[in-house]
Write a structure and sequence with these properties.
The protein is an all-alpha fold. 78% of the residues lie in helices and 0% in strands. The chain has 14 helices and no strands.
Length: 297
Amino acid sequence: MKIRDIAAVLLVVSIWGFNFVVVKVGLREVPPLLLGALRFLLVAFPAVFFLRRPPRFGLVMLYGLVMFGMQFAFLFVGMHLGVSAGLASLALQIQAFFTILLASLWLKERPTPLQLIGCLVAAAGLVVVGVHVGGDVTLAGLACLMVAAAAWAVANLMSKAIGKVEMLALVAWGGLAAPVPLLAASLVFEGPATVLHAVTHMSPVAWGAIAYSVYPSTLVSYTIWSALLNRYPVSTVAPFTLLVPIVGIASSALVLHEQISSWKVLAAVLVLAGLMLNVFGPRLAARRLRVAATSNA
């Protein structure tokens, strides 16, 4: 990759990692379901007026409902229920292993032995987090994060079914499916009085948190990411997402003063090691096959 493209991809993963801190700040004033509704209302409008509607629109809307409506509802609720920003950025990465599991069940894609080992290693990291429930992680919050990760995994398979499509258009049009159900859920579970009070009493800090989630974290970052995927193979760009939880944990410690204890370091090492085996495992297995074939020849 060119130096400017490396700088661009590092900027994107930094924006995404720091977004967990921004969300945590926003949740101090805005209830989680309402926060999700406002975010995707502004993601979709006015962008949908300038971006061509993707093909297979019904599937795109279903994708948006799962990816943006369901995933972010449970992510924001989980963080509201007590999962710190740094741990949320780490736990959500379990979506990679849910994706492997679902792909093996629905698409009959066989995971490599290294990917299976990666799943077990990452699961050990989650066990470490689960053992330390209390303080900046709650059992209910962690359970919501797992549902969010599972929703992301389902959406990954939907994205594969949609096929090749411009990523920013998929995000904007898919985001169109999220605001109404999120707002309805907010009115039911958070209450009309809470919703009205939050909207009419939001400080500039809360509006700034929403703006950050909409513009740098979604519209700008996905535009850059899409351009990088068009320029380089997915296998070159995708591994950089391993840096997102590192940025999330570091920024939450710097900005929110969340303590980085030894068990968090252990959990992060295990989950990230499992992710690395998942990302690089198929490549290593393919290389071994090529070496074996060359040797036999």
